[in-house]
Amino acid sequence: MILSWLFVIALAAGIFAVIDGITRARGRGSSVIAIIEIIAAVLFLLSLFFPGIPFGSLVLAIITTVLLVIQLVLRGGRRRGGVAVTVVALVLFILWIVLAQHWIVIPGVN
Predict the structure, then answer these.
(1) How many CA atoms within 13 Å lie on the side-chain side of 22?
(2) Is there a smaller number of Cβ atoms within 10 Å at the N or the C end of the chain?
(3) Cα–Cα distance measured from residue 46 to residue 11, given in angstroms and rounded to the nearest whole number
(4) pLDDT (tens digit, 9 = 90+) per residue, 19-38?
(5) How far is residue 46's CA from residue 82's CA, in Å, rounded to a whole number?
(6) Which residues make Cβ contacts (< 8 Å) with residue 29, sequence separation at least 6?
């Protein structure tokens, strides 16, 4: 495993998604979606280290991104800080998907 910027972006996105899912599962709101988000984010993080995880990193990143968008829309009556974690995770996942698929090539990153 080579430490690269793409790996760091993926790792940060997964960690932020897990943190977001845990805070949403503990609070009020759609805890079922939060639990699914935690599972998808943890599987995404594991797929970075173990390539034998079913569905692969890209599919898990897309699933987690969709769940983050749903959580952002169904945010409920939460504090403003919770939305920031969701937006950061969402931006990092979208950035990782775009860079991992080579839709945008940035020398030194992908």
Answers:
(1) 8
(2) N
(3) 10
(4) 988 888 887 666 888 899 99
(5) 24
(6) 74, 75, 76, 78
